[in-house]
Amino acid sequence: MADQKPPRIAGDDRATLLVLLQYQRESFVKKISGVGDEDARRSPVRSGTSLLWLTNHMADAEATWVLERFNGRHAAAADHADTMGAAIDRYRAVWAEVDGVVAHTPFDQPCPDFDGGPPVNLRWIVSHLLEETARHAGHADILRELLDGSTGR
User: Fold this and answer.
1) pTM of the predicted model, to two decimals?
2) Rounded (5°) CA angle 86-90-91
3) Full set of structural domains in the chain with CATH
């Protein structure tokens, strides 16, 4: 798998964060694409983390932070996908819904309190999702290499 470099942009914080978040999302999906369902369920690490679990987790993270906590949508329990194709489709559907919320909302808009912790705004949430996605893309990179030797981003 050939490396793909992050896009360069000289935009404002919204444009920069969103283009980098999308790059990380696509990098994650590229890394997990082509893995068979059996391998996707296997965990080559002691923690038990698998590519299928990680993909469902990525969809859950975006849905929880933006759709539930920030936008106030009370979703039923997450319906986790049990195949890689379904998990990737679910993740893409969630990120499209998240992008719809983010596109029409000021970055300074505060998130309603959900746990009594310090307040955050949409800018912080998008930044957090960027770092979370990049972190888990790295996990996926390691898992994929351990499963079938595939490397690159």
Assistant:
1) 0.91
2) 120
3) 33-148 (1.20.120.450)
